[in-house]
Amino acid sequence: MITIEMPLIQAISEENRNYVQYFDEKLGHVPNLYLSMMHSNHAFGTFYRFHGRKNSLSLKEREAVSLVMAQLNNSLYCLSAHTMIAKLNGFSEEEIMQLRDGNANFDTKLATLARLVKSMAVRKGKNITDELDAFFDAGYTKEHLLDVLETMGESYMSNFLAKTMQVPLDFPEAPVLKKNDEDGND
User: Which end of the chain is more exposed for a tag (fewer CB within 10 A), N or C?
Assistant: First the structure.
């Protein structure tokens, strides 16, 4: 198996070094996922601008989408990062585990969102009429739907980047989600 090392700071572009300085000042380090993108002169800047786009979803709703996607895509790095971020956004351990499973017994609107995201990802956007009806009935709009889809795309990109680049964990490892017997997702 090929091991892809994190880039050396001296080997990255000047623009990326500016991001390194920014994250060192704000967080004390650059998250490994971001650092791995700096093998390219442009990948991280493009991703970071997309990540920072305006979005009609709340931070909690975005985290719900990210947790569902990381679980479905079996991305340990993203599960670990978003578990920590979800805690910072006020979710409990139990709530995080429910969201990862595409549920939210603690909040009916988030439950509707999580079920839609899981259904769209598993069914590849097909046969989701019931979930879409429930989503709109819960008060979400077409703008919300588009922002959900963009957030799913962002998650998909980071999930597979983390797995492909074998990004080492720099967050506490997320606990394993015990799967239901009828859940066929890996």
Answer: N
Locus of tokens 């971020």: 85
The answer for 175, left when phi > 0, alpha when psi is -120 to 50, beta otherwise, is beta
Can you say whether residue 126 is alpha, beta or left, with left for phi > 0 and alpha for psi between -120 and 50 degrees?
Answer: beta
SS3 116: helix
CB 89: neighbour CB atoms within 10 A? 15
DSSP, collapsed to helix, strand or coil, labels residue 186 as: coil
Candidates 172, 21, 163, 11; CA nearest to 82 is 172
User: What's the pLDDT at 180?
Assistant: 55
Handedness of CA 3, 152, 113, 179 (dihedral sign): negative
H or E, element range at 128: none
The position carrying tokens 């979803």 is 57
Identity of residue 157: M
Q: Is the pTM of this model over 0.85?
A: yes
Place of tokens 């709703």: 61
Residue 181: the pLDDT is 41
Predicted confidence (pLDDT) at residue 123 exceeds the cutoff of 90: yes
**DSSP 8-state symbol, 52:** T
Return all residues near 36 (Cβ < 8 A) that are at least 6 apart.
4, 6, 7, 161, 162, 165, 167
